[in-house]
Amino acid sequence: VPISKSIEIFGASSLNFLIIYQFLRKVALACDDVLNLMSEDLDVRREIWRSRIPIEFCFIAAELNTVDTPKASYMLVSRLTYLPLLKERLKKHIRSILNYENNIDGIWFEFNGFFLKWYYPVGVLYDYYGAKSIPWSITVHVKNYPENELECDDKCNVEFIFIQTLKEADQMKHRGHVIENLQCHDYKQLWNNFIYERFDQFYHVSKPLSENTIENPIRYIPIRVYLPDRFKFVQKLVKPFRISSESADGGAAPTAPTTLQDILPKFYGRWQIDQFLVISHGISLPFETPVLWLVENLCYPDNFVHLCICVVDR
């Protein structure tokens, strides 16, 4: 997808990273040594941390006991964060700007009639639901929390989900050998550096979780694919390299890097290359992209690669 078209679809905020990604892709594909492609690039990861989505948070007049249209709140929100982590800023807006002094039963979020699942990163929600609108307009509710649809979303639960997802990712990559060596204070550092968006400090602690070495190679790629006909991810075991049926010693041996084109039909039975885009961080990914490159450069802080399959507009 040309850069201009990607910006049109996914927003001008993706411009810098799109340019970087396209340049890296051209350089990587020109290299004869595939290992040059399978490398981590801190500039790419840092650019991801800086990415923002402009969001308009709208409120329901009846829920705030007013006849006037409540003033919306506008934020530039990190793609990597979770909606519950924005609640305190929204509560401040509700009380100070909208003069609402009653108790707030529980803030929850909706877009076009869909409950926004708080345990998915904001960037995933935007890529799936709102990628054609800037700013993304989300409805904020302060009453009638849908407990049957959404579990409790307090800050402790968000932290728990985040850490458990990290553990799951390392179990897939390194059999859990890396994460089991982290101490309690390491987990707390990871979480605090994540919520306060301190990239260098977060990366310092999390780097061992991303390493792919001869001594401790990545076994499987932690990847979640969100399907177009229902907002639910599919997760399968994906090897970083395709396996040949024979090798010199008679066993199976890795051949070429596994690409998106190799794995997507396994995730989505109706997959057709000309009908869908694969989106991550607002970028339409080339189908020849190696999944190992994705996990080393485009994974979210939870160490998973999150991919949204979107229908191509005709």
From TrEMBL:
* Signal peptide location: none
Q: Which residues form the Autophagy protein ATG5 UblB domain?
A: 220-309
Q: Name one GO biological process term.
A: autophagy of mitochondrion
Keywords carried by this UniProt record: Autophagy, Isopeptide bond, Membrane, Ubl conjugation
> What's any one GO cellular component for it?
Atg12-Atg5-Atg16 complex
* Gene3D superfamilies (UniProt xref): 3.10.20.620, Autophagy protein Apg5, helix rich domain, Phosphatidylinositol 3-kinase Catalytic Subunit, Chain A, domain 1
Domain Autophagy protein ATG5 alpha-helical bundle region: residue ranges = 158-210
Provide the protein's localization: Preautophagosomal structure membrane
The Autophagy protein ATG5 UblA domain, residue ranges: 48-142
| The keyword RNA-binding is assigned to this record | no
Q: Does the keyword Ubl conjugation apply?
A: yes
What membrane topology is given?
Peripheral membrane protein
Extract one GO molecular function annotation from the record. Answer: Atg8-family ligase activity
The job of this chain, per UniProt, is described as: Involved in autophagic vesicle formation.
Subunit record text: Conjugated with ATG12.
Q: Report the sequence similarity comment from the record.
A: Belongs to the ATG5 family.
Q: What is this protein called?
A: Autophagy protein 5
Organism the protein comes from: Romanomermis culicivorax
Upper classification of the source organism reads:
Eukaryota, Metazoa, Ecdysozoa, Nematoda, Enoplea
